[in-house]
Specification:
Layout lengths: L2 H9 L11 H5 L5 H7 L3 E6 L2 E5 L15 H17 L16 E10 L3 E10 L5 E10 L7
Antiparallel strand pairs: 1-2, 3-4, 4-5
Pfam families: 4HBT (PF03061)
Catalytic activity: a fatty acyl-CoA + H2O = a fatty acid + CoA + H(+)
InterPro entries: ACOT13, HotDog_dom_sf, Thioestr_dom
């Protein structure tokens, strides 16, 4: 995919394989919709100070086109369960301090792209002062394409 197509995809603009994003549907979703959408069915198997073990059956709506758990769902699970374990340590608040409608900047960099694996790093920063509010590293398996 060329750079302009990637840009259009991320911004929800029309591309050859995309009929365009309908932002009106997204803005009508209830607050914190994504947490419930992704973590529906989570069962807490063990909870103790500083530790939580959960299990869940992955529903079809969380699978990507390759039939694997979607990376966005993975990140949401890490965020929700990771925040919950902070609460078990006695804290009453967790999270990143970002104002409503505050603009952030997201920078993604490829660290390595091999034959079977790609590794990327992503930083989220407050645009007004450059303060890092979140970092993530993502390793992706690059499934070989069929030669048929």
């Amino acid at each position: 995919m060329d750079l302009e197509s990637v840009k259009k995809y991320l911004e929800g603009e029309e591309t050859e394989n995309n009929e365009g994003a309908d932002s009106s549907k997204v803005t009508k979703l209830p607050n914190r919709f994504i947490e419930r959408f992704v973590t529906q069915g989570v069962k807490v198997d063990l909870i103790e100070p500083g530790r939580i073990i959960c299990s869940m059956k992955i529903p079809p709506h969380l699978l990507n086109a390759g039939n694997f758990l979607h990376g966005g769902a993975t990140a949401t699970i890490v965020d929700v369960i990771g925040s919950a374990v902070v609460y078990t340590s006695g804290l009453t608040q967790t999270g990143v301090s970002v104002e409503i409608n505050e603009e952030i900047e997201i920078e993604a960099r490829t660290l390595r792209v091999g034959k079977a694996v790609a590794v990327v790093s992503v930083e989220l920063r407050k645009k007004k002062n450059g303060k890092i509010i979140a970092q993530g590293r993502h390793t992706k398996y690059l499934a070989p394409r069929s030669k048929l």
